[in-house]
Design goal:
The first copy, chain A, is built from 13 helices and 13 strands. With about 350 residues, chain A is of the alpha/beta class. The longest helix of chain A is centred in the middle third of the chain and has 17 residues, at about 110-130. The relative contact order of chain A is 0.15. At the C-D interface, α6 and α7 of C face α6 and α7 of D.
């Protein structure tokens, strides 16, 4: 790039394992190219040589390139990094980025709506045993008018509902839960109780969430503080037939105790994320009653893929105009080091 | 009753096939008894002799007793009839009741919330194939991260949604659909377009509903005007993968054409009500793909049973105070003769 | 009309003191004429001769013609009467209309939105003394930054608000009050507490409304049961500086005690309706502090006049199709005889 | 402070022209003292000696002390600065604060709710001429039933409404405007159109706002980019009788052209903020018709003063726990240098 004389911003791609054509459609590609010179690359992680070549001139990186301090020192023009994988990895010096006014952003918010809709769908399936009743009709052993198989069907209407974790996904779920009309409890140690009250929800301890709510939605990222924390002690506090929806990160629950509680009939569990993925062939969950089981498919639906490109271009437009990004999630330097969610393979 | 000298209203029960202890809990029984003298009876339809005995003194009937004109002429004190089965049967002279200021009411509104929640659950199950993915994990043939089985998953967010029929159930469903943020189309020939606009929905023809909506919720009662009306001509107009939720009355659809459309992959169908119930053992629907199948279980869940007693007592309190009933559905003399929904057996 | 051979419905006008050209614009006139043969008349009450002439053939009356039983007996084809003045007058035999299936309707609902917006505007003016501060700037004696004149300014945000009466106007006001986020208390003896709870408001006694609410909106019609009922005993229960908005009917308050309470500084009163109108020249209210005063102008704004014609035509369309009216207010035969609101002159 | 051995955070006050007892009540004082050692001071700006004495040990400053780079270099422990005056002044090196991870915050959000409620009250007063009608009744020259003085009264219901600027105040106003049901246009050059659409409003140019909206709420901070920008060219685009509410900063309008437009009857103007305050005695606005006039009193009402203390303590709790602040407004280093709103005297 020594010979680069263009005054236009340089935008470098390193999105692996995502593919550019999945993230960007023709419109967002066009918008991106109108903003600067784009170095397109995907299919494999960019090589060190590739990265080093563009580093001194790059304004924006779209991808998960490692950015230790020494690289940041050479990236004098870098203003923004877009993680398009959705987990903030430890391969970036976030503090140094903050110091240099470099925004490190993630397109994770695109997953909020599909996960929220799936989570509500899972809760309703569990509350009404929709999936089991469907299987029964197919097998020819249904009961009519819910005689029998409706004996433990419950309404969400009017019941307390709880969110453990109220980030992107929780905030997308909240409006879907409001019209059911019950109190909404939220446990999120990273949000001040006053801020929760301002959102018109009830700040609650984990104990209160499990004791009071008909459905507990586990929506928290895995952190150093909550790994494996949700286990039997909490499930035992639930009302019989209470529902646990696990749709963000498996790391926050004691998975065996979750299955024990479902197996015993104490709770119903709707599970989309797993300690090990793919799900091992003989995993006991496959035979556990009182569950709704999905193979980590809540967020990754085709229609939201091009939203990632939109978020990137929207925020790049803002940053190039000297404004703060507004669409992507920001890596908060205060808390990013505590995140422990596993990246996708 | 010739000897009856009590000035208290007489309340007669004839709720078969419902049971009093299902409809009334201790609180609503107590409230009822504070309002008048109650002739408890259930387990079988009241005999003619039983009915005739109390007819001259009765103020309120809770049940489905036949009330032809000649009986109404003898029921000089009758003010209100509570149908607790939920379909307005042709065994009552509704015009004569109207003339005499006798309210004929149904506790059907108690089913609105459970049917609305189930309908949303069915739509989400169909949109995300939750029930199929659950079955896949149990069978050990799931795909991870939605690779493959998410290829036609859709969001409800932002998409037009349609209600065909906007009575009790439709009105209970509306608030649950609002936060998805899309336009809501309503086709209901019995509601004025201006009244629909006032409800903040878009009045629409059936054609518009099927052409534009991602999900069409069929929520209409069967009437002389709509029996078998919804068939191939409409399903062919849907976008590929569009969802039809049939959760009120099977009579309004051409059921075979509905299954054809699902089988061809043109639409997805979520079905709770059937032309013949119980569902015949070899019914083709049991093998039809792109469906979610339930055996008429959307409304009849235990927690709403005692609500029927509450509605009866609430409205009886009003009627005895000289006010119009507000909680039950009223038999509209203008339209009741057009209803053709089948009663439960 | 003996010679009338048209099979089309006959629609007779008798709207005095309203004028047709105020109620109907070219579009609603056209719609009306497409529904039947219209006998246009206004400017003065229709003469008995005029009415008697058309009575045997008339299907719909738009106006306030007297309809005693003997006239109804001759009006064999009459299906609907539209009161366009907005108060149900005692010149109709409502019971006989009910018996004959004749709907007696009022276009009063058109006033709900303007009265609701004005009521909120009055509450905010009282809460923040907007009108007084405006007068102060004009007089050159304002205080800056609210120093002094903001000492008793209050927020509606988060505070309990009360509605006394929850008919058309109350229901139009409710959604405007919701986003302020406080509890909403409703006192309405004609609505069952269960129905109020279903509307997501708190049923309350009059005492509770005045004790707890920051603003009490008096929205009730005058009835035989509530005339002059709201007086000192209630105002004394209010928190100091509490606001009373009187925007429906003056008859329900003891007007002098309302002014006493404002004068003493105990409450603030926003008044749009008066015991005698026009307001007597020397009326003490004109000098009473802690008031916002309007001369019965909340409802009668030009843009809603043609809505009356729309309501008439919408409901006439429904009635002619054999459906129940949905847009106008119905005279409830149970309660209409208790109404005592004064007609406009 | 050389001798200070306490491991507790040091919190320094320099809130002039605000007073501690106005901002903090006994509860927030207690909470503050539980968080660290507090150096109470108010009544005058803290002296340089006072500031310098505590600077090396201070963790949090509550006030508007000057913080140039050289002071920041000595404030090794400083984590957060709370501006309690509400305008970000140029006496802080914001870039250096950012680099050092020092949050510079303002308690300005406490004013959002009172300004929002006042703004709605002003719009309703202008739309219905509430203040003028009140003055007319007092003067004895009112017209009854709105005859005459309602000729240009308008409903907000269903009409497009526009916000110019959508920061704290705009966001507090939005929910109050939603139930009126009309489209909401927003012009805010610092918010991405995609972010506005996500808030369920319509991004709009200034031209579109003034051409289409019945009420334009001017809610923007004064910046280098918008000073004096809103003038005749925009007012001329409004529908006759359109309403302009100026309740944030006077600097963004050409004030004389605003008054010209009101005087001509083209628009109605509701004005709370002024180019020069106090308002000059002979200011022409005092005699300008079609206006509602307030002397900068929208935000500063007593009940929100202690909220400032709450915001300070809430965010200090978060910062001391290693989390990002959530309750106060943050000085965005990208844009803070463009702000030109005048501080209070």
């Amino acid at each position: 790039m020594e010979t680069r004389s263009s005054p236009r911003p340089l935008i470098m791609f390193d999105p692996h394992p995502r593919r550019i054509d999945v993230l960007f459609n023709s419109e967002t590609k066009r918008r991106l190219e109108s903003l600067g010179d784009v170095i397109w690359h995907d299919g494999a992680p960019a090589s060190d040589a590739h990265i080093e070549r563009y580093l001194p001139e790059v304004t924006a990186i779209v991808g998960q390139s490692a950015l230790p301090r020494e690289r940041l020192e050479r990236a004098k023009k870098l203003k923004v990094v877009f993680n398009v994988e959705s987990n903030f990895l430890p391969n970036i010096d976030y503090i140094e980025c903050h110091r240099r006014g470099i925004h490190v952003l993630s397109t994770a918010p695109v997953f909020a709506k599909p996960v929220a809709e799936m989570s509500l769908g899972l809760a309703l399936s569990a509350a009404r045993r929709i999936h089991q009743a469907d299987a029964a009709v197919r097998a020819g052993n249904e009961t009519l008018y819910g005689e029998g198989d409706n004996h433990d069907s419950i309404l969400l209407h009017g019941r307390p509902l709880a969110l453990v974790g109220c980030g992107n996904v929780g905030r997308a779920l909240l409006p879907l839960l409001r019209p059911f009309g019950g109190e909404i409890l939220v446990n999120d140690p990273w949000i001040h109780p006053s801020a929760l009250r301002e959102m018109n929800v009830t700040p609650a301890t984990l104990d209160e969430c499990f004791e009071r709510a008909a459905v507990v939605f586990l929506m928290a990222a895995t952190t150093t503080e909550n790994m494996g924390k949700i286990g039997r002690a909490y499930f035992d506090k639930m009302q019989k037939g209470g529902i646990v929806v696990l749709a963000s990160r498996a790391g926050i629950v004691n998975f065996d105790e979750l299955l024990d509680a479902a197996e015993s009939g104490r709770i119903r569990a709707a599970i989309d994320v797993w300690p090990d993925e793919p799900i091992p062939a003989g995993h006991r969950a496959r035979r556990t009653p009182n569950t709704v089981l999905q193979a980590h498919r809540a967020g990754n639906i085709p229609e939201i893929w091009p939203w990632m490109g939109q978020l990137v271009v929207d925020d790049l437009e803002l940053v190039l105009r000297g404004l703060a990004p507004q669409r992507c999630q920001r890596a908060q330097w205060e808390t990013v080091s505590k995140l422990r969610s596993k990246p996708i393979e």
